[in-house]
Design brief:
This protein is mostly beta strands. It has 6 helices and 48 strands. The protein folds into 4 domains: 148 residues, Immunoglobulin-like, CATH 2.60.40; 115 residues, Sandwich (Immunoglobulin-like), CATH 2.60.40; 192 residues, no CATH class; 133 residues, Immunoglobulin-like (Sandwich). This is Carboxypeptidase regulatory-like domain-containing protein.
């Protein structure tokens, strides 16, 4: 009958914190013949646990009878020959790697440790008809912390995070261990709390021995007494990308050992000020267009050829304070005739409050007491409404909120500029007979409106202190185009209508049905498609046709080549395969000619959608 030892190995890091010994080798030996089996079998494991030296490992090789490796949960299974089943057995384990999630296991010299001399108590299992003896052991923290730290340079922090007021665990929050150094503070490691608020952080001595000379010279940089080698640990928190100061350097635990056990609680969330200085750096959160390198100085457009329109996010970083004083900031603009024109130092005008669309500039963070959703954040707005948190203006200066739990935006929107309020919106009435489609629409009544060019800059200062004003980012002049087209013809003469408030005027018609009754003239032998598309920043214009074709026959339109601004117009005909076919060879049926066009306009977050029109006809 088979004899199997089923076991588990774990270790304490703290009295209330443990971990499994995964992927270690468990070795079973016969005892020495001259040993007092009764005495060693009765001894407590805390008195028998020891490191096995290399010469001793070699001396007992001939007594090795079984070996297995633990799984990720510390479980192992050993088959014991029946002839040894009545003997006492020595249990050792050896390890050459130690796990340290989420990093790869730390490798080192393989070392072996003796646990105890074990007398199996065999019990038969009815299901498998085998004899099983169970063995489990949890290594005391004083041993395991030394093994991990001294031999494998793995240092561990084990703790629990709760709400100070309710005592409830704070789940899903990242705990960050920091080392307070004389020169610069190092991040030792981080881990996210589980549903009970527990966390484990693993790090190595390299994480707290960094200096400004690293990696050439690595030493612990705290030069204050008592000159011990362990880090000086304090904690910060992070949730949804925002860091909070749970503790400061003054709360540090000096020169901690290989294992640190902590109970942490948070009563309020105090955001950590970013190290990035306040500045204006980009247009748009999505496209993130640099205010200098991302703009073509010759055209004022983005490197992709886009002009700006509508509401544009001005992206950058703000902070609560400058020089320990509350911060306020202001945006200014300057119009130039051409984007290459030099800026006038005295030509700046303030962006006034009504030029600013509703903007989120940061959040208030609070603990909820809800285990499943421990943190709540409320937006802080420029031009908020109702009960929303909204900033105060100091004239045209935007005052950064000073609430203790306010986190200001970092590399995010800090003002949403209404370019329509900046430039005004020009409306052009495109009302004209359908017979005018395909011809130029520019006239004194429908003038050519060009892009306008504006440089944007940010200024910042201590609250109310003009002596501290500094410029924190100036853009190249950018092209802006805010024109709306009214009474734009749609569906030609076939089902004629007009539409308003179009960013792009686009129309199509057929010459052969313009003079027909109600636009429903039938097509027989000719088809001349007339089209017009108008916007200062046209990107493309294309025609297509939908309808049946004969076997082997295909038809379509040649590509439309854009004309100079502000419009592309003309007339074209179908191109057939085979080329000898004509409109007369179309099958008798209904067909639809469609036109689409794009204008290269962007907000920095989204581009203008394509515009469409179509006209249908019957072929007889």
């Amino acid at each position: 009958m088979r004899h199997i030892i089923k076991g588990n190995l774990a270790a304490y890091l703290c009295r209330d914190c443990s971990e499994y010994l995964s992927q270690v080798k468990v070795r079973v030996y016969l005892p020495q013949s001259d040993i007092n089996l009764a005495a060693v079998s009765a001894a407590e494991i805390k008195d028998t646990f020891k490191e096995v030296k290399e010469e001793e490992i070699k001396s007992k090789e001939n007594r090795l009878i079984a070996e297995a490796e633990t799984d990720m949960n510390g479980n192992f299974s050993l088959v014991i020959d029946e002839k040894y089943s009545r003997s006492s057995l020595e249990i050792d384990f050896s390890c050459g790697t130690i796990s340290r999630p989420p990093l790869t296991p730390k490798k080192g010299k393989e070392r072996q440790f003796h646990i105890t001399t074990f007398v199996p108590q065999w019990k038969i299992t009815k299901e498998e008809q085998i004899l099983v003896a169970n063995f489990s052991y949890i290594i005391p923290e004083k041993w395991w912390c030394i093994i991990k730290g001294r031999y494998f340079d793995i240092w561990t922090i084990c703790g629990r995070l709760t709400d100070c007021q309710t005592g409830k665990p704070l789940a899903g929050i990242t705990v960050i261990a920091m080392d307070a150094d004389f020169i610069t503070d190092d991040e030792l490691g981080r881990n996210t709390t589980d549903s009970n608020g527990h966390f484990k952080i693993y790090y190595t001595s390299a994480d707290f021995k960094k200096t400004f000379l690293s990696p050439i010279i690595n030493i612990e940089t705290d030069v204050l007494p008592p000159f011990a080698s362990g880090p000086d640990v304090y904690f910060q928190l992070e949730y949804s990308g925002q860091r909070f100061a749970l503790e400061t350097k003054s709360n540090r635990r000096d020169n901690v050992g290989y294992c640190l056990c902590v109970k942490l609680c948070s009563k309020e969330l105090i955001p950590v000020e970013p190290s990035i200085p306040p500045s204006f750096t980009h247009f748009g959160l999505t496209q993130h267009i640099p205010i200098q390198a991302g703009i073509n100085l010759a055209t004022g457009k983005t490197l992709g050829g886009y002009a700006f329109f509508s509401s544009v996010n001005l992206v950058g970083t703000i902070s609560k304070k400058i020089n320990v004083q509350p911060m306020e900031y202001l945006f200014e603009y300057q119009e130039v005739t051409n984007p290459i024109d030099p800026l006038n130092p005295a030509g700046w005008n303030p962006v006034v409050p009504n030029m600013i669309d509703k903007t989120v500039i940061g959040y208030l963070w609070t603990l909820t007491g809800d285990v499943s959703n421990p943190v709540h954040y409320d937006p802080y707005y420029i031009n908020g409404t109702g009960t929303e948190n909204t900033i105060n203006f100091n004239g045209n200066w935007i005052q950064v909120p000073q609430d203790s739990n306010f986190a200001a935006h970092v590399d995010a929107e800090i003002l949403k500029l209404s370019t329509e309020k900046l430039t005004g919106v020009t409306s052009i009435d495109m009302n004209m007979p359908t017979s005018s489609i395909g011809n130029s629409s520019v006239s004194p009544a429908r003038p050519h409106i060009s892009n306008r060019y504006f440089a944007i800059r940010m200024k910042q200062r201590e609250l109310g202190n003009s002596a501290t004003e500094v410029v924190a980012g100036t853009s190249k002049p950018i092209a802006i185009y805010n024109v709306l087209y009214q009474n734009v013809n749609k569906h030609g003469s076939w089902a004629h209508t007009t539409v308003n408030n179009q960013y792009l005027a686009l129309s199509v018609d057929l010459e052969e049905i313009i003079s027909g009754s109600g636009g429903c003239s039938k097509i027989t032998t000719d088809l001349h498609v007339k089209y017009g598309a108008r916007n200062e920043n046209l990107g493309s214009v294309s025609l297509s046709i939908t309808g049946p074709h004969k076997p082997g026959q295909s038809f379509g339109f040649n590509p439309i080549v854009l004309m100079s601004s502000p419009e592309t117009y003309g007339s074209t005909q179908l191109v057939f395969t085979p080329p000898t076919d004509t409109v007369a060879d179309l099958l008798p049926c209904a067909y639809t000619v469609s036109i689409s066009a794009t204008a290269l306009l962007t907000t920095g977050d989204s581009n203008l959608d394509s515009y469409y029109d179509f006209v249908s006809f019957c072929k007889i």
